[in-house]
Specification:
This protein is 29% helix and 27% strand. It has a 9-stranded mixed sheet with strand order 2-1-12-11-13-14-15-16-17, with helices on both faces. Residues 145-157 have low confidence and may be disordered.
Amino acid sequence: MSFPQSLATLLATGAADAPAIGAPSRRTLTHGELRELVATTAARLQALGAKHGDRIAIVLANGAEMATCFLSVASCACAAPLNPGYREDEFRFYLGDLGARLLVVMRGADSPARAAAQALGIPIVELVPEVDGPAGRFQLATHQGNGLAVAGAEAAPAGAAAGPEDVALLLHTSGTTARPKLVPLTQRNLCASADAVSRTLALDPADRALGIMPLFHIHGLVAGLLAPLAAGSSVFCAPGFDALKFFAWMDEWRPTWYSAVPTMHQAILARAGRNEDIVRRNRLRLLRSSSSAIPPSVAEQLEAVFGAPLVEAYGMTEAAHQMASNPLPPAPRKPGSVGLPAGAQIALLDAAGSLLPRGTTGEIAVRGPGVTAGYLGNPAANAAAFAEGWFRTGDQGYMDADGYLFVTGRLKEIINRGGEKISPREVEEALLAHPGVVQAVAFAIPHARLGEEVGAAVVLADGAASTDAEIRAFVATHLADFKVPARLLILGEIPKGPTGKPQRIGLAARLGLA
């Protein structure tokens, strides 16, 4: 099956006068205007000496300018978007580890990335939005004396287009279990995954995505941005996720779909009852969930509220996001499953790397055009994760007789209670079945005799008055005694990582339970 081999080819899909990038209270940028902006920015970067493969760090808040800046940089060089919420020490580490050639920041933004870049001798380029122009249009400027000058205002010769094997995106893994690893993704990797998402969701030029995922994360970049553009359709770039504003954005943009992590879906669901009129007059075609498992009960509620199917997908940074997905109706969507292979070949391996038959639990491995060739500068990690063309994901799961994949846990997140292996997801689903619980996360806590014990944290629904003992007693009616949390905390908010996912590893220490 063919797909675009470069971002330049992918961005050529949309009709010149069709909408491409939207933002709150802004005129929509068309596909033709987007292509012109990408070409102009490439020329300006070339005038600054940037070449294919040069790593250009981007530290911008979510929004249309972040989206178009990423597209422009990734089309001609190697984009390295970083979480704007990092502190200066974190920026020093990430910018140094990247070997960044340039840093792009917003004009007027007082980001600690500036000080980190100056300490490392990395030139800073400022993004200047065209406030009266369409969503996402900008210029780049560099410091000259005490003022600003448009970078590359002189005509720069057009360089050769980036090829399929040129690295377009460089991201760090989350680093919850070890030092973060650098994942290089080529033009072909990104296009293959974006095409897989677009095909899975049957996107066409009439679709309108509501983009709420962070654009320094593979989910937001590929499913939230590249997939809609690959279909010649459009995306509304929200300035970060805000459950209080979600329905107003929905009313303004009239989207046909959105993709989010489960915690975002749960926050949206909690406010849906107050926005029934908006939901009624803005019918979605589908909802998509990825990056962590969504409880089946939450998926059912979302489908009932929005009157649209929820498609759960499975992705990773190393695979340029999508590897499997539940199909759209009328094909079956299986609760608890991440669906069928969709963007990668999938196999189950035992500890020795041998293939396992369907129905047998093992480590999930993938290969395909979206999968990275290996981590940068980390031979030990490559030796552990890549073998005979397969990437070992570190996730545990099985395939049923119909080929649907079920992810039972992260191998390093599995709770080992005196030899009893417990999936955090199973505990979380039991907790979420309690009528007073709206969010839950289960994790390992140290135990002197057993090695590990089950811990959990929950957030209660508004007005709920459940106690930890009552919730644990409820779980005991659904799970074996050894799976019932020994410690359960009731919190106002579940601690999450920068992409909105709870991070089970290390959570016991963060909550004072280690």
